[in-house]
Amino acid sequence: MKPIPIRHIASSIPENQNGGRFTIRSIEQVLKGEDLVHDLHKHDFFFVLALQSGKGMHEIDFIPYPLHDHAIFILRPGQVHKLELQAASSGFLMEFDLTFYQPKNSISEHRWKKASGKNYCEVAAARYTRLHALLENIFNEFDKKMEGYAEVIKATLDIFFIEYIRQSLNPNHVPKPETIYNQECFEAFAYLLETNISSLKKVSQYADLLHLSPYQLNAITKESVGKTVSDLINEQIILEAKRYLLATPNQIKDIADLLGYEDISYFIRFFKKQTGQTPEAFRKNFK
Predict the structure, then answer these.
(1) Which domains are present in the chain?
(2) What is the pLDDT of residues 220-242, one digit of tens each?
(3) Beta strand 80-85 with 56-60: parallel, antiparallel or unpaired?
(4) Phi-psi region at 33: left, alpha or beta (left = phi > 0; alpha = psi -120 to 50)
(5) Does the pTM of the predicted model rise above 0.70?
(6) What is the largest CA-CA distance in the chain?
(7) Which of 90, 186, 205, 266 has the fewest CB atoms within 10 Å of its CB?
């Protein structure tokens, strides 16, 4: 079986003894005056694309986003994407893993999970200028590599993600404590779902991992996104299946096996019920 192509970060931080990896490049450096076309693939790191100006198309987990000025994208490890970027584009491309940057205190961690869960943000010109200035500072620190530069980058990333979160519709809204708790539980569930879907497919299994009852977890997901836990489990299974169908040449029986289905006919019926077409038809029609 052929896995989905995975890209890795080439650059590491020498002063980081824990092996953390980080890199930032200007988009002009990446493009070198030519159009960029990256076919479907995924990363084992976080990927931040900040477009000061540009045109093209960015497809994230099969959702297309036309590229335009002042757009910011954040991808989590494992997400599948395809990128087409025109030669005249400008901005920054930043990549890092959790060994390099992972907030430790609960407030920063909650903010980071909220930011990394938001794949796309269209930013007003004035606010993008602030975000761009932070990325320029990170770029200069990484380029000059003066003493303590890794710590300066991490601190600036904290500020960058605060600014990114402020792009919400109600930036001055102060949520109630119970809302914050439910949001934290939902984010923890979403992470567990994304990383365990091939082996865990029951509501009770996720509820147990979160020390909640199935009823409580259902109430949280309905409040957060208006969907039941079962709905979200099914959506994640289909998303993983689509990733394999479109990013690898694997046979349907192999994809079913990767997703934890011993009975290929059951997997095909499930996929058709959820999407209206068989896995083979989906692969053929999408291409």
Answers:
(1) 6-165 (2.60.120.280), 177-286 (1.10.10.60)
(2) 999 888 999 999 999 999 999 99
(3) antiparallel
(4) left
(5) yes
(6) 59
(7) 266
